[in-house]
Design brief:
431 residues; seven-stranded mixed beta sheet; four-stranded antiparallel beta sheet; 14% strand
Length: 431
């Protein structure tokens, strides 16, 4: 065994990845973001080695006195940010948060009204994911194709007719706010709980750029914490309902989570404070950037969904690239030029055929956090045009992208702290 050689290979691979993704790429993956240097510093802590099963001050392990205080404080801050009475920040992913909430609201199974996968729904909301595995039978709500949104009137009729145990709103593809109020009214008539999966739009909700689902009639929010919300990877649950919170807190542990990755708690707390301070400015710029990018792409001949309503009101832009070779071909060509997007099914696609779907899904939250604004969206649209419409040499565009990216190397919308403080925070692990 050549341990030294294997070690060198691993280190070189991660260095190459870091250089490529952090310094040389335009990242437009709608489900990713970057954490700030301060968040990174508190994330890299001794807490990553420790266990703390249960709730603060009621642990099954000793040695959690500071973890208890951190978790208690961060839970309260997180709830405050979203005007929620309760939060549970122990789920280690958005899917675990979904599984917890689905179990709390519909333990015995039954029908669940969901957004179909081609309409933007997440796989965990489908028969293929955790919802199906929990014995719930998904009933798909109708979708307005070009808007990739729920048809509120038809969905309300479906809910009244099918009488689901719960209704799941929120989506992986979401360019316009879901009609939470209208759906919630129908759900209440049949006694269905309303879940809003806010994984993609949580940062926009925090900054007031997207309606808060709890204020519009949702019973509970399930979410991840690392998309438009620029925190560490993880999940959370928010609710104003005491009984739902009681159920959730007993299901997260011991059903779906044992130890809840303690090093992310302080990191989530710092991100929460960043969003309290900078969230409105950040979220507003995200939406403005998405809108400008959509307009610029449309002006260059791309088929951008949502044209009749201004293309987008979130961080996402959706392209129908069937006329340009399909989503897989376009995404691969863009990646070769260091522009990272993902191919995506659109409402008219077969959800089981994902080899070369119709669409591209674009998200601007990370480039916004790196300081890009409307003018840069015009430049990014030009890169798309050169590659996909004009067929310009990929190597030439890649050089342009790398040069462009050199101007955006610092995370914005965060606290200005010294390198000495960051070094001090990490000194125990790095010494």
């Amino acid at each position: 065994m050549d341990a030294a050689g294997d070690l060198e290979e691993i280190l070189n691979l991660i260095k190459a990845h870091n250089k490529w993704r952090i310094r040389e790429c335009i990242n437009l993956i709608a489900s990713e973001n970057v954490t700030s240097p301060l968040v990174n510093a508190v994330y890299l802590s001794d807490a990553m080695h420790r266990y703390a099963e249960g709730l603060p001050y009621k642990r099954f392990y000793q040695g959690a006195r500071y973890i208890d205080e951190i978790e208690d404080k961060v839970s309260k801050l997180f709830a405050k940010l979203f005007n929620s009475k309760h939060s549970d920040i122990r789920p280690i992913s958005g899917t675990i948060a979904n599984a917890t909430v689905f179990t709390a609201l519909a333990r015995e199974g039954g029908p669940a009204a969901v957004v179909p996968l081609p309409g933007g729904g997440h796989v965990s909301h489908s028969k293929y994911g955790v919802l199906g595995r929990l014995g719930l039978d998904p009933v798909e709500m109708p979708v307005v194709y070009d808007e990739v949104n729920i048809d509120a009137d038809k969905a309300a009729e479906l809910i009244r007719r099918s009488k689901p145990r719960l209704v799941v709103l929120g989506a992986s593809v979401i360019i316009f706010p879901h009609p939470v109020k209208e759906i919630a009214e129908a759900a209440k008539e049949v006694g269905a709980g309303v879940v809003f999966d806010a994984a993609h739009v949580l940062g926009l909700i925090a900054g007031g750029a997207y309606p808060n689902p709890l204020a519009e009639g949702a019973d509970v929010i399930s979410t991840s914490t690392h998309k438009t919300f620029p925190g560490p990877q993880g999940g959370a649950v928010l609710t104003n309902d005491d009984e739902i919170y009681r159920k959730v807190s007993k299901i997260v542990f011991p059903v779906f989570v044992s130890n809840h990755h303690l090093h992310r708690l302080a990191a989530l707390g710092v991100t929460t404070l960043e969003m309290m301070r900078f969230g409105e400015e950040y979220a507003g710029q995200v939406v403005r950037n998405a809108k400008r990018l959509a307009e610029a792409l449309h002006a260059k001949g791309f088929k951008v969904l949502g044209e009749d309503k201004g293309f987008t009101q979130t961080h996402q832009v959706l392209l129908d690239v069937r006329g340009d070779g399909g989503g897989a071909k376009c995404a691969k060509k863009l990646e070769e030029a260091n522009i990272i997007v993902n191919k995506n099914i659109l409402p008219w696609d077969d959800p089981t055929d994902i080899v070369n779907p119709s669409g591209l899904r674009i998200g601007v939250q990370e480039v916004t956090r790196m300081g890009m604004r409307e003018d840069e969206m015009e430049e990014i649209a030009e890169f798309f045009y050169e590659l996909i419409k004009l067929g310009k040499d990929v190597k030439e565009v890649r050089k342009e992208v790398i040069e462009f990216r050199k101007n955006f190397t610092e995370v914005r919308y965060t606290f200005d702290v010294s390198r000495n403080l960051i070094s001090e925070l990490t000194s125990f692990l790095l010494s």
